[in-house]
């Protein structure tokens, strides 16, 4: 099969013919219909993730059609499925209590296992997979990827966002835009923060109540002014020290910070603990979403309760993935790139 392979960090992915994946007994092989290009992939591409090495095939936001099923697989050949990026084992205490996104035996294609920057991908633990709604295009499904599902879990499970609350979103990439759209659907008022005017204008066109450029103003201070004392919830969607501190400092007393952005390098930061202490803030980490939450989220999207089509900006070929990753070194345009052509 054709795949985009990591050979040298910070260099173009190598487009190669590699062996087709073997089908796991407890899973399936999918012919990949679409795969999102995610900022988490960028961290791996630059050498910031220990499980991305020479020979890795990245890609964890994918959907496709079953072409082979193992003896213990739940699904059958011909099923069209979407995958969460964390594949929980299904048997451990975390999985048995509904928290498969915290499974210590989880497999994450693209990070330690071959991913979906390829024509085919092997998916073990296929009980995590979910039928792709007939009305949803593969490109949009892959565009939902880890960004929409992670944002949904962050808002509903970790932060417990309620109608009428102020939600601040720091960073308007995939996670940030998802958080904006989903928080508005929940009835919250949303302020977005970025340093790219194009992204701020785009967020305003999607319903943001305010948009702040952190390059020219103190975002935390302005959020406290606009909200009359601070936001109730703040979503950190970039994973750097500056936005983490802005997220903490913009909150009202008893506010909830949710850290969604993947920290680069060793992840060590200097955090304003006085703000956390004095305002008695809650500080949540979050990663992914339990697989059992997927059907309800997909059904909600299918019913038109939230329009996530703005998440998808462009469809690209497999050989274009390197350019998308290189672009993440600097400001990027709004929306997500999705690989849909695995021969181009």
Explain this structure to me?
- The model has no long low-confidence stretch (mean pLDDT 95).
- Strands 3, 4, 5, 6, 7, 14 and 15 form a seven-stranded mixed β-sheet that branches. This protein has a six-stranded parallel β-sheet with strand order 10-9-8-11-12-13, sandwiched between helices. A two-stranded antiparallel sheet has the order 1-2.
- The longest helix has 21 residues.
- Helix 3 crosses helix 4.
- It contains ten helices and 15 strands.
Task: Set out the fold topology.
Elements: E1 2-5, E2 14-17, E3 28-36, H1 39-45, E4 62-69, E5 80-82, H2 93-96, E6 120-123, E7 130-131, H3 138-158, E8 166-170, H4 174-185, E9 189-194, H5 197-205, E10 210-213, H6 219-227, E11 231-236, H7 241-249, E12 251-259, H8 273-278, E13 282-285, H9 294-302, E14 312-317, H10 321-327, E15 336-341
Parallel strand pairs: 8-9, 8-11, 9-10, 11-12, 12-13, 14-15
Antiparallel strand pairs: 1-2, 3-4, 3-6, 3-15, 4-5, 5-7
Please estimate the helix content. Answer: 25-40%
Shape call: globular
Structural class label: alpha/beta
Unreliably modeled segments: none
The radius of gyration is: 20 Å
- pLDDT averaged residue by residue: 95
How many DSSP helices? 10
Give the termini separation.
Answer: 13 Å
Query: How much strand content do the residues show?
Result: 15-25%
Order of helices and strands: EEEHEEHEEHEHEHEHEHEHEHEHE
Largest sheet report: 7 strands, mixed
- Structure summary, number of beta strands: 15
């Amino acid at each position: 099969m054709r795949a985009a392979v990591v050979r040298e960090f910070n260099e173009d992915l190598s487009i190669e013919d590699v062996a087709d994946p073997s089908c796991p007994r407890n899973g399936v092989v999918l012919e990949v219909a679409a795969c999102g290009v995610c900022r988490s992939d960028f961290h791996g591409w630059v050498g910031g993730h220990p499980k991305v090495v020479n020979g890795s095939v990245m890609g964890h936001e994918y959907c496709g059609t079953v072409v082979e099923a193992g003896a213990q697989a739940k699904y059958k050949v011909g099923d069209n499925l979407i995958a969460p990026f964390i594949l929980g084992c299904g048997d451990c205490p975390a999985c048995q209590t509904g928290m498969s996104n915290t499974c210590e035996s989880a497999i994450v294609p693209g990070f330690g296992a071959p991913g979906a920057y390829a024509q085919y991908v092997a998916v073990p633990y296929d009980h995590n997979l979910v039928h792709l709604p007939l009305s949803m295009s593969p490109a949009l499904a892959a565009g939902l990827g880890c960004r929409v599902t992670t944002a949904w879990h962050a808002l509903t499970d970790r932060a417990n966002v309620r109608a009428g609350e102020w939600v601040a979103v720091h960073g308007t990439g995939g996670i940030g835009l998802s958080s904006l759209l989903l928080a508005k659907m929940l009835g919250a008022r949303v302020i977005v923060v970025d340093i790219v005017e194009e992204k701020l204008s785009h967020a305003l066109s999607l319903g943001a109540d305010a948009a702040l450029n952190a390059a020219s103003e103190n975002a935390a201070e302005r959020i406290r002014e606009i909200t009359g004392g601070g936001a109730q919830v703040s979503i950190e969607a970039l994973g750097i020290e500056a936005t983490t501190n802005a997220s903490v400092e913009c909150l009202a007393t008893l506010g909830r910070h949710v850290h969604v952005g993947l920290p680069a390098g060793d992840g060590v930061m200097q955090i304003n603990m006085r703000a956390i202490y004095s305002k008695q803030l809650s500080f949540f980490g979050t990663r992914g979403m339990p697989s059992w939450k997927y059907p309800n989220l997909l059904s909600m999207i299918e019913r038109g309760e939230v329009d996530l089509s703005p998440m998808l900006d462009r469809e690209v070929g497999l050989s274009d993935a390197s350019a998308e990753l290189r672009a993440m070194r600097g400001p990027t345009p709004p929306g997500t790139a999705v690989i849909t052509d695995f021969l181009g």
